[in-house]
Amino acid sequence: MLDSRTIEIIKSTVPVLEVHGETITRTFYETMFRNHPELLNVFNHANQRQGKQPTALANAVYAAAANIDALERILPVVHGIAQKHRALGILPEHYPIVGENLLAAIKTVLGEAATDEIIEAWSKAYGVIADVFISVEAGMYEQTEQQPGGWRGFRRFVVDRKVQETAEVTSFYLLPEDGNAIASYEPGQYITIRVKPEGQEFTHLRHYSLSTAPGAGYYRITVKREDAGGDRPAGIVSTYLHQHVQEGDIIELSAPAGDFTLNQNLSTPVTLIGGGVGLTPLVSMLETLLQHSDREIVYIHAARSKEHHILKEHVAKLAANNSSRLKCYTVYESAADSERCDKSGYIDASWLSQVAPLESDFYFCGPVPFMRAINQALHSLNVPEANIHYEFFGPAGSLGSPSGSSPSSSSEE
Predict the structure, then answer these.
(1) Residue 413 and residue 236 in contact, taking contact as beta carbons nearer than 8 Å
(2) Domain-by-domain residue ranges, the chain?
(3) Whole-prediction pTM value?
(4) Catalytic residue flag (residue 95)
(5) 190 annotated among ligand-binding-site residues
């Protein structure tokens, strides 16, 4: 427990964090990786370069400071971050390293304004926050290992099949090398791959959504190759998977994780909206709904063009076999494909209200501008916050929605 004076000091720093939070977290990562380069084996280098990880951490630190007197308010955020930590293999011994370098970054950025009293208060607060994470993650590690087919850490899987879906998207079917059972998962969750491409100094870890319903006896991920463009370098892991990993090769996985999951305890309609490769967790949800419920389903896929339409034939077959309760719609950005889709251009509120029951539970995933547009459309249609669910591919960010919506995050590259 924190004393009242410490709580008072931490809350007094909230306005400072609003102004300097990202500078502090950026300095923190630079300092930590300089002092502990071995941690580059865990963190996503691309998210560091693009500034996504410092922003996400700044938001988490700000939330913790603002709610330091009632940390239970941010338990959903803690749980989502802890899911990623468990998937990456973050352990209790990592927390003192983070705390030491975070306090050093606060001192560096704020200078004389970071008095001894403020640093001491933040040291105490960080200890309490770290204990919360360690406790939550310990439970996750135990549950993951003890579940049927579960394991701790990373396990070797064989690439059983490699199927090209489009020119830039490939599905990988993964079986355990030891031939034993594999852990089940909630539709919408992801697995984490650990690879060390030739010529790379560090191992690289990436989260990839599982793109099929649980219970198949294998894991399937559907990966877009991220090519270089503008100032953006090619994706290290996605390029490696596409160009170098072949059928029969071994890759390492941690057990499924993530809190962007389908609520299977409802009877209301479900609307699934995917942009590009963002369809992956939604296809898992779609297959699960068709197998285990009688709920009305609307499935909407937005793609640049017909050539970029992922899993087109697979979803069309599902629709043909379940026409009484599954309605599928396609939106192509390219006007040249207007005769091959249900709408050309972009999804908007007017069109969405015509094809999807507004009492639906809405799940959506895709590029951030796409998700921002969907989120704004749903709010303009007065869809309740409780019915809006979305996931970021990467550190959790903001769609500019009112507080209360439920973003999750994975890290696909």
Answers:
(1) yes
(2) 4-146, 155-257, 270-410
(3) 0.90
(4) yes
(5) yes
Q: pLDDT truncated to tens, each residue of the chain (413 aa)?
A: 789 999 999 999 999 988 998 999 999 999 999 999 999 998 776 656 655 677 778 888 888 899 999 988 888 888 988 999 999 999 999 999 999 999 999 999 999 999 999 999 999 999 999 999 999 999 999 999 999 999 999 999 999 999 999 999 999 999 999 999 999 999 999 999 999 998 899 999 999 999 999 999 999 999 999 888 777 788 899 999 999 999 999 999 999 999 999 999 999 999 999 999 999 999 999 999 999 999 999 999 999 999 999 999 999 999 999 999 999 999 999 878 788 899 999 999 999 999 999 999 999 999 999 999 999 999 999 999 999 999 876 555 556 544 334 455 555 65
Architecture of domain 270-410: 3-Layer(aba) Sandwich (3.40)
**Is there a catalytic annotation at residue 359?**
no
**Is 62 annotated among the ligand-binding residues?**
no
Distance CA 60, CA 57 (A): 5
CB 301 within 8 A of CB 280: no
The whole-angstrom separation of Cα 285 and Cα 261 is 8
- What is the CATH architecture of 155-257? Beta Barrel (2.40)
278 labeled binding residue: yes
CATH topology classification for 4-146: Globin-like (1.10.490)
SS (H, E, C) 286-311: HHHHHHHCCCCEEEEEEECCHHHCCC
- 277 annotated to bind ligand: yes
- Topology agreement, domain 155-257 and domain 270-410: no
For residue 395, say whether it is annotated as part of any ligand binding site.
Answer: yes
CA distance 141 to 153: 9
CA-closest candidate to residue 379, choices 360, 402, 408: 402
Distance between CA atoms of residues 318 and 53, nearest Å: 38
Are 379 and 289 in contact by the 8 Å Cβ rule? The answer is no
> Alpha-carbon distance 157 to 401, whole Å?
39
Query: Is 367 annotated for ligand binding?
Result: no
Which sign does the torsion angle of CA 300, 305, 306, 307 carry?
negative
- Of the residues 95, 219, 363, 390, only one is catalytic, namely 95
- Which one from 22, 29, 126, 137 is the annotated catalytic residue? 137
